[in-house]
């Protein structure tokens, strides 16, 4: 098909985009057709997603393709994981979905009074994070759950709004800590032990499954369009991993953005005492693969610091912050990026300074010192994590691929190569949207498989290589960093 066009709806925690992907048989080209803020709402003491506004913006993106006479053949939606909406027996959304940063799951460890941590991990192989869907449902209003007919994760919910058809896509479901990682289906016995209604759970479909055309209700509103909605790798990290441009099957990746998702792609889950101790997760990937990874607090630390400075009336850009960081003295202080004190929104620069003071380190004073502390600490956490991956796999992966928006932070990519002592290949930037579009192209039949897809990506987008520098200095810094963990 000459110049096939597909629409990726790529939703992040702070913004969303409509990206038109054009494939000419050799290269993939991207064009953004709509961008919008994704602003959660604090209401009556709860933190919620404004899901109807998000749906309106998705329809706006599709309408623009119609108005611009762009003949798209398919549509795919990817979003963050864990969060969900409840649908009643009449097919209506029962309440605005909770945001994963809502405080209702702060006491999530109470769940292990019912089922032990080891038993939960032994079945799910999932990293323990307070906002996993399992703990959200345990914390939910029981009357609401009992009245609900079905639960849909955010991309599945938006697909339902577009088509009227329900499906539960595997990669996003795998973030819930409710799947049996080995058989890739719901862990019904475990869910029953927690007293949760299993009738809410839909049949799980593989990424790449066709869902349905847009509903008549939607096309009557926005205009006629002959496009099929496809269940892409709906978890944004799963889409990003599809876009890793590695020539080898053995690679370590970092999907770098608000979060840093660092891991490797394997055929079967790794669930043992060491993976449990290191708190690695086994999430679903495209082609029934497993994304064996660790969630690391990522550029949220920089983003929320920037927002705090702007709340205080000090406007700055990311380039200015990066330049200030590089002008600051190296290795003065570090943080554990995953310390719980950095999870909530608010005054992160103050909390970083307090952390350094509490741990007996130099207390950063300037914006540059704070950002340098963040970047160096992230790079050292990457080393800590990749060494665990090497241990658990039994082999050392010779390089790291960084994909996503974080590749634009060249200092962080450079620090990662130096801290980890191996080359880093950075790019593509738009990995999540690319992976979304690639799965659509494979489903339609224009790209043969994932190996051909990764060749297309290498042929289409710039990849920057970073070599390790000052390794002995980073080794010394790592010894200091380890004392914080």
Description:
With 485 residues, the protein is of the alpha/beta class. The protein folds into 2 domains: 4-231, Nucleotidyltransferase, domain 5, CATH 3.30.420; 244-427 and 448-485, ATPase, nucleotide binding domain (Nucleotidyltransferase, domain 5), CATH 3.30.420. It is built from 18 helices and 21 strands. It has helices spanning 51-67, 117-124, 133-139, 142-147, 154-163, 170-173, 188-193, 216-222, 236-242, 273-277, 300-311, 318-326, 348-358, 367-393, 410-420, 431-444, 450-460, 471-482; strands at 4-11, 15-23, 28-37, 41-43, 46-48, 74-78, 84-87, 150-153, 168-169, 179-180, 185-186, 204-205, 209-213, 228-231, 252-256, 259-266, 281-284, 290-297, 400-403, 424-426, 464-466. The strands form 6 sheets. A 7-stranded mixed sheet has the order 17-18-16-15-19-20-21, with helices on both faces. Helix 9 packs across helix 16, helix 14 crosses helix 15 (410-420) and helix 14 packs across helix 18. The radius of gyration is 22 Å and the shape is globular. It starts with a strand and ends with a helix.
Task: Name the features.
485 residues; alpha/beta; Nucleotidyltransferase, domain 5; seven-stranded mixed sheet; six-stranded mixed sheet; 18 helices; 21 strands; 20% strand
Topology:
Elements: E1 4-11, E2 15-23, E3 28-37, E4 41-43, E5 46-48, H1 51-67, E6 74-78, E7 84-87, H2 117-124, H3 133-139, H4 142-147, E8 150-153, H5 154-163, E9 168-169, H6 170-173, E10 179-180, E11 185-186, H7 188-193, E12 204-205, E13 209-213, H8 216-222, E14 228-231, H9 236-242, E15 252-256, E16 259-266, H10 273-277, E17 281-284, E18 290-297, H11 300-311, H12 318-326, H13 348-358, H14 367-393, E19 400-403, H15 410-420, E20 424-426, H16 431-444, H17 450-460, E21 464-466, H18 471-482
Parallel strand pairs: 1-6, 6-14, 9-12, 15-19, 19-20
Antiparallel strand pairs: 1-2, 2-3, 4-5, 7-8, 10-11, 13-14, 15-16, 16-18, 17-18, 20-21
């Amino acid at each position: 098909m000459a110049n096939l066009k597909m629409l990726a709806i790529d939703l992040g925690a702070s913004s969303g985009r409509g990206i038109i992907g054009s494939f000419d048989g050799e290269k993939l080209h991207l064009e953004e057709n709509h961008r919008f803020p994704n602003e959660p709402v604090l209401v009556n003491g709860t933190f919620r997603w404004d899901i109807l506004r998000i749906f309106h913006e998705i329809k706006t993106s599709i309408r623009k393709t119609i108005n611009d006479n762009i003949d798209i053949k398919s549509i795919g939606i990817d979003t963050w994981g864990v969060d969900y909406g409840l649908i009643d027996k009449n097919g209506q959304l029962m309440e605005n979905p909770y945001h994963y940063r809502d405080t209702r799951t702060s006491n999530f460890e109470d769940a292990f009074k019912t089922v032990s941590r080891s038993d939960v991990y032994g079945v799910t192989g999932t990293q323990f994070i307070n906002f996993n869907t399992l703990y959200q449902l345990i914390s939910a209003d029981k009357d609401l759950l009992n009245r609900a007919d079905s639960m849909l994760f955010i991309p599945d919910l938006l697909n339902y709004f577009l088509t009227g058809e329900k499906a539960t896509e595997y990669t996003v479901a795998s973030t819930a800590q409710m799947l049996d990682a080995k058989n890739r289906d719901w862990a019904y016995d475990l869910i029953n032990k927690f007293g949760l209604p299993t009738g809410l759970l839909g049949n799980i479909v593989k990424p790449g499954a066709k869902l349905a055309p847009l509903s008549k209700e939607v096309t009557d509103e926005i205009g006629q369009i002959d496009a099929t909605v496809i269940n892409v790798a709906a978890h944004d990290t799963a889409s990003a991993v599809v876009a890793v441009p590695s020539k080898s099957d053995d690679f370590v990746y970092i999907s770098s953005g608000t979060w840093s998702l660092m891991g490797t792609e394997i055929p079967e889950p790794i669930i043992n005492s060491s993976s449990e101790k290191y708190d690695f997760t086994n999430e679903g990937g495209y082609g029934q693969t497993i994304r064996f990874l660790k969630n690391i607090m990522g550029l949220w630390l920089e983003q929320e610091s920037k927002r705090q400075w702007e709340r205080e009336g000090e406007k700055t850009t990311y380039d200015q912050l990066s330049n200030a960081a590089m002008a600051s003295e190296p290795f003065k202080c570090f943080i554990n990026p995953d310390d719980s004190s950095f999870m909530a929104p608010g005054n992160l620069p103050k909390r970083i300074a307090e952390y350094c003071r509490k741990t007996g380190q130099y207390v950063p004073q300037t914006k540059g010192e704070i950002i340098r502390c963040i970047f160096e600490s992230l790079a050292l956490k990457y080393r800590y994590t990749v060494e665990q991956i090497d241990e658990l796999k039994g082999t050392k992966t010779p390089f790291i691929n960084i994909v996503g928006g974080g590749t634009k932070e060249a200092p962080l990519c450079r620090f990662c190569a130096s801290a980890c002592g191996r080359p880093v290949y950075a790019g593509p930037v738009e990995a999540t949207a690319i992976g979304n579009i690639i799965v659509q192209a494979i489903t339609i039949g224009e790209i043969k498989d994932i190996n051909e897809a990764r060749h297309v990506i290498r042929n289409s987008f710039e990849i920057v290589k970073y070599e390790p520098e000052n390794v002995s200095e980073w080794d010394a810094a790592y010894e200091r960093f380890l004392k914080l963990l």
